[in-house]
# Entry
Amino acid sequence: MLVDEALAALGLGAGGYYVDATFGRGGHTAQILQALGQQGRVLAIDRDPQAVAAGRRRFADEVRLTLLHASFADLAALVPAHSRGEPCRGVLFDLGVSSPQLDDPERGFSFRADGPLDMRMDPTCGEPVSAWLARASLDEIREVIATLGEERFARRVARAIVEARRERPVERTSQLAALVANAVRTREPGKHPATRTFQALRMFINDELAQLEKGLAAALEFLAPGGRLVVISFHSLEDRLVKHFMRRQTQIDPALLELPVLPQGVEPRLKLVGRKRRAVAAEIQNNPRARSALLRVAEKIK
Ligand SMILES: C[S@@+](CC[C@H](N)C(=O)[O-])C[C@H]1O[C@@H](n2cnc3c(N)ncnc32)[C@H](O)[C@@H]1O
# Structure
């Protein structure tokens, strides 16, 4: 299973300090703690307050775990504050939304059930998708749906939203799903026509790519030499960002190689561990979301 490979890639031994950057419902944190033994410690974070509240109940007696409501974009400050000077041996990013988020219509992530069009992973800040759709221009909406959803019919979808909001605000998931289904006539097999639009709006309203970039940059700083950076992504744009980040850090800038003497501090900071991996068929059968899961692993050199 991809999850087992991800956990194995963390190189868990008895003891050590690890970071779970995307706690969710704590499935991976539980497995990390189990592998670590009594000397291990985990800092787990999630930007979703419901995830953190559920985690605090589940792990109420777990003294080896620090669970914080925070974004992984802020890990650069959080890890030094909680590590007690211990070197960090590994960090896990399991990106995207969790099943509890998708399954709760009140969170507004899903086109399958009606709910308020919110989609914030952290509802304590920012604005819901409905508020943004009420004020964004047609071009802004088109741009988000085209780039983050890679939706060929982004203009049609944006126009449908702008026309619909003249009549009444677009405030419900079912309303948006129906709007998109009417605007996008072609169907991708096995995909609801609103899949790309919902994904784009979720990624936009949660600023997911910028947060990921910051989280990866932070990991590079706080990981100890030999520490592992393990990332599971579910979206081609996320994976591309992870791939480019890792590649940049595993190579010396070709322009610098032209210099007679290499400046200090430009050596690669990561080395890749294996190739990218995908979930196997049996895993996909049990969990259809795993179909698009990709695992990438790198190790900090210095
Ligand atoms: C796929 S789930 C993780 C599931 C988890 N590994 C488990 O075993 O239950 C992704 C989680 O990451 C959280 N998340 C997404 N972006 C985040 C960010 N920038 N900072 C912190 N948590 C984030 C989401 O709220 C969600 O709970």
Summary: The first strand starts at residue 16 and ends at 20. Residues 208-222 form the longest helix (15 residues).
